[in-house]
Amino acid sequence: MITVNLRPDLKRKRARRPLQGALEGVRGLGSRIKDPVLLVAALSWVGVVGWLGFVYLGTARELSGLEPRLEQSRAENKRFKAFLSEKRHQETIRDSLVAQIGVIRTVDGDRYVWPHVLDEVTRALPAYTWLVDLGPARIASTPAAAKPTHAAAAAHPGSTKSDSTTATAATPPLQFEVNGRTVDIQAYTRFLRQLEASPWIADVTPVSAQTVVEKERPVTAFTIRATFRQADSAYIRTVPLSQSVR
């Protein structure tokens, strides 16, 4: 095939690549910009724009990675908030029950004292021994012992503590006396030992023991003083108030 060049003064342009054209454009730009300050400013702007783009892309990638953790933290926050609310509700119920139990104990605290005393004294009573009298110990009141209480009340006139709690704490334990007879002095000492072994009785003290004549027979008349104490829960046995009978 014959090709005729109708414009011989112009050279045939070669096909160029796009990258080569861009490089030539940059070279031409460098040749056109004669001021070096302007060139440095342009390069600085290009660097700043590139750095801002890099930072934006990194921040967006980090934010997309933190969003699932944020949702998980919100779900845990809701779960723990519900748990704390339920815990406060249960604590409120517990405090109410504790207050009610305290009131019941205050009311029933002294109701079963004497049944315990009678039960323990009866259990400890040996053979050939009988009781004549059982009641509170006859102790003379000491007004001097009450003075520190009044002095303390005068020293703290603005105290707002519960009077019932103070009175309960200041109430002395119950002291009782047992008057009995026995025909065997060894039974008397056995009675003392068995009273001391009781978990409900403490401070067993023999007050007097002497021989008297009753119905023309010599017997030993004795007086014992002791103190009632609350036994450990291991010694407390509960029974139902009512049982169904078939």
What this model shows, in words?
This protein is α+β, with helices and mostly antiparallel strands. The chain has two domains: 20-109; 112-138 and 173-231, Alpha-Beta Plaits (2-Layer Sandwich), CATH 3.30.70. Helix content is 54%, strand content 17%. It contains six helices and four strands, in the order H-H-H-E-H-H-E-H-E-E. The chain has helices at 18-32, 36-108, 113-124, 143-155, 163-170, 185-196, and strands at residues 129-136, 175-182, 201-214, 217-228. It has a four-stranded antiparallel beta sheet with strand order 1-2-4-3. Helix 3 (113-124) crosses helix 6 (185-196). The longest helix is centred in the N-terminal third of the chain and has 73 residues, at 36-108. The termini are far apart.
What characteristics describe this protein?
single chain; 246 residues; 2 domains; four-stranded antiparallel beta sheet
Task: Record the SSE blueprint.
Layout: H1 18-32, H2 36-108, H3 113-124, E1 129-136, H4 143-155, H5 163-170, E2 175-182, H6 185-196, E3 201-214, E4 217-228
Antiparallel strand pairs: 1-2, 2-4, 3-4
Task: Briefly say what this structure is.
This protein has 246 residues and is α+β, with helices and mostly antiparallel strands. 54% of the residues lie in helices and 17% in strands.
Question: What structural class do helix, strand and pairing data support?
Answer: alpha+beta
Strand/helix succession: HHHEHHEHEE
Whole-Å distance between the termini? 129 Å
Q: Share of helix among residues?
A: 40-55%
User: Describe the biggest sheet?
Assistant: 4 strands, antiparallel
Q: Provide mean pLDDT, rounded.
A: 77
Shape designation: rod-shaped
In DSSP terms, counting alpha (H) and pi (I) runs of 4 or more, how many helices?
A: 6
Radius of gyration: 51 Å
Approximately what portion of the residues adopt beta-strand conformation?
Answer: 15-25%
User: Low-confidence parts lasting 5 or more residues at pLDDT below 50?
Assistant: 141-169
> Please, how many domains?
2
Number of strands: 4
